[in-house]
Amino acid sequence: MLEGEILHEDCEGHKGVIREGGLQWMTAGKGIVHSEMPSSNSNGITHNKGLQLWINLSSRQKLVEPSYQEIESKDIAETEKDGVRVRVIAGEWNGVKSKICTRTPTMYLDFTLSPGSRISQPIPLHWNAFVYVLQGHGHFGDSKLQHSAAAAHHLLVLGLGGDMLEAWNGSDSGLPLRFILVAGEPIGEPMVQFGPFVMNTQEEIDETIDDFENFRNGFEKARHWKSQAASALGLF
């Protein structure tokens, strides 16, 4: 969560609040019905900003039991060096490791570069990777060869075969550059997606939808469940 807070709950009875700066890493596994609803401030005005990333699981892990990992803002691994501050959501940076355990090998780094600072970030060869700019204006690529300039709300998909990202804040405005770098190891399996369901074959998708509609194989407790937060907003 970048700003505000989100209320979450599910059919298994889990519930809580993801507050500003906090993190929730949910593994849906075999399936769970849940809701995520924005919380309102004391004036009744909803103002929330956050990032949500969906990561595929390998076929051998798709039917694991659902689980949550939740970390408050103050407990997220963070480090700073030479004008570069990094919040380590997943993976590792400069010897600082995230507390999050990922079933699919993943790097998720939240960078803030002060004016004039730069990074050279290794990325495992052949991993898929992208950059999303949250604030400011920066340069990404090879400072001696080809590079791209990008401002807030722009996404850069990194080319395959590279093993390094260079980024620098050359802004004259004096503003920081904030962006996330996300990278992951390709699973190398066929993928079929329908709505929130992601499996390996159409047959598996059909079976999953049938389980969901008939409250089987992980969806048993969803039969009579309704989100309290959604009901309070008149959505049910």
Automatic annotation (TrEMBL):
Q: Where is the Pirin N-terminal domain?
A: 1-55
Read off the CDD domains from this record: cupin_pirin_C (cd02247)
Q: Which domain of life is it from?
A: Eukaryota
Pirin C-terminal domain location, by residue? 108-218
PANTHER family (UniProt xref) = OS09G0484800 PROTEIN, PIRIN-RELATED
What family classification does the UniProt entry report for this protein?
Answer: Belongs to the pirin family.
Q: What protein is this chain from?
A: RmlC-like cupins superfamily protein
Organism, as annotated: Arabidopsis thaliana
Q: What is the lineage of its organism?
A: Eukaryota, Viridiplantae, Streptophyta, Embryophyta, Tracheophyta
